[in-house]
Fold:
Amino acid sequence: MQKDKRIRIITGHYGSGKTEFSVNYAVKLAEAGKKTAIGDLDIVNPYFRSREQKAMMENYGIRVVAPQGKFINADVPALPADINTLLQDESYSVVLDVGGDAVGARTLGRYYNLLENADYDMFIVVNANRPNTRNPEDVVQYIREIERSSRIHATGLVNNTHMLRDTSVEDILMGQRVVEEVSRLKNLPVKYISAIGRVAQQIPKGLTGEIFPVKMYMRPEWL
Structure:
């Protein structure tokens, strides 16, 4: 995490776990003593938005920027003006949780002038157990659509292949084969291998990417 850019844009197809990864990333930054903010730019998926964990993240000292009041659960492009502040205030380590398709990625277009020459990374979160990102060719096509829509270039990949609490090491290794081939095709590094704690402990050493244990903040125990 230390080598990542100040602004971390996180996106991924529906079901990839990109919001879970975003929230965990923000918490880890805060735990490391960083002045941290998370911007919820997901105007596509009405479920499992990072803003739902606002109180928890604020307890860590994380600034949460998301639609407020009557817009908090709206499926409309009501993007908070404070996002501009986060992109320009270099004292913040920023995580942007972006909607996971080309329509959602268009929200980044609003901030293109601020991001074009900014200190940013855009990580593509991949769950190879999902039908639309099951093979390298589909993932490459997805990345192209996101880049075209947002006008922002991806800079890294996250293997977050999972089956929620039933995730196995075999799931992770299968996803790793997919993202490593995407890495070769797109010349993008595999930045992280993300998995729930008990699985992360079992991942073999020597794989490409930093092992990134996550907690399931976005799903209650009964889901």
About this structure: The first strand starts at residue 7 and ends at 12. The chain is about 35% helix and 20% strand. Residues 169-186 form the longest helix (18 residues). The helical segments are 18-31, 54-59, 82-88, 102-109, 112-115, 136-150, 169-186, 197-200.
